[in-house]
Prior knowledge:
CATH architecture of the largest domain: 5 Propeller
Shape: globular
CATH topology of the largest domain: Tachylectin-2, Chain A
Amino acid sequence: xxxxxxxxxxxxxxxxxxxxxxxxxxxxxxxxxxxxxxxxxxxxxxxxxxxxxxxxxxxxxxxxxxxxxxxxxxxxxxxxxxxxxxxxxxxxxxxxxxxxxxxxxxxxxxxxxxxxxxxxxxxxxxxxxxxxxxxxxxxxxxxxxxxxxxxxxxxxxxxxxxxxxxxxxxxxxxxxxxxxxxxxxxxxxxxxxxxxxxxxxxxxxxxxxxxxxxxxxxxxxxxxxxxxxxxxxxxxxxxxxxxxxxxxxxxxxxxxxxxxxxxxxxxxxxxxxxxxxxxxxxxxxxxxxxxxxxxxxxxxxxxxxxxxxxxxxxxxxxxxxxxxxxxxxxxxxxxxxxxxxxxxxxxxxxxxxxxxxxxxxxxxxxxxxxxxxxxxxxxxxxxxxxxxxxxxxxxxxxxxxxxxxxxxxxxxxxxxxxxxxxxxxxxxxxxxxxxxxxxxxxxxxxxxxxxxxxxxxxxxxxxxxxxxxxxxxxxxxxxxxxxxxxxxxx
Length: 490
């Protein structure tokens, strides 16, 4: 069987935007790049935490890949296109409509744009669209909810001459669900499935996965149907908390009396024997799960900036990643920080840092949920001596847990388990903190923890290496960064 699946996910305020993945079996996913890689495509410098890019839809039509999404921090709905998802994507074509969660569906030569509107009491709207110009025809309401008028994430499909509308209802946390309706026309009216919701985990709070919804459907080369959706994995007992953010899950779909069926309305624990392509190798980690880099080759696909960056502050060299701190701290937008998502409960992170700070300068390794919820090991000066400090910020409270003298060259680390982070300096555990306080249940938001090096300083680098008004800080250099899972539990 020769087939390739592509996946796009939300990126919120991070840059580059709209990460893209490729798979041959719907389980092993290789990161291949991003759709929004240029400042002309995406500027999130002023985006709120968990703002920015929401809920993309990826489609392929007559040789072209189309991505539609919403920049909630400026610009609204847009469409970008590419001949190859791993290549360069177009500048955005903006669509003048309210709301979020847009979908594209072609029926012959007609393309339909369906979305959740923020107009009061209008639910899911739809209009014909010219995807090349973004021009919309007349807007109409096609769904006002089955159980919940706040229906989101619409997608339209056709199967055997029948048109299906899949939407998310019940909010995006523990009440999340996927419901289905069908019609003889892509414009409706749509009749609800008598067995709605077709997917939900809200009936059992002791499941490993909660908040399943925002479903999309795909077929493989043999005509089998599959559902992908977002979900969360809470820990800490009922009702639990989650700090890895929203993740993507998959389930096989069968059909009964013309309706899609997800067995037991749940995400299966295993897909053994059902995969559409080659089975994954149990003893191999996919590229997104492990990072070991000296940065000489530049920024790999799993790395992200918190917002559209000042690129002058980041140098990828043969000697490592050079970070130039600016006046911003981790509590502010624009801080010098480069990270990758924490994707495993149990993992080991190490950063080999070379840094000789001046007063007011700091660099180190940070675990960041948002600007008000982050933990870090920072190297700076205290009473003229170079020290590594472990610091936690939870809301309005910041606490220094420990400090220790260090040399100019130091290895900083985090050993993560489900219930604890241990902060390590040159192989010695210095302090620990609970992941719970970086969770959505405490901090709010959607993104989960991102881990990576940062730098702050009183001055800041400019394109000309600084001047009298903006002195150049001493740069920090990260010679190697390692992220690796330490158990089989993702």
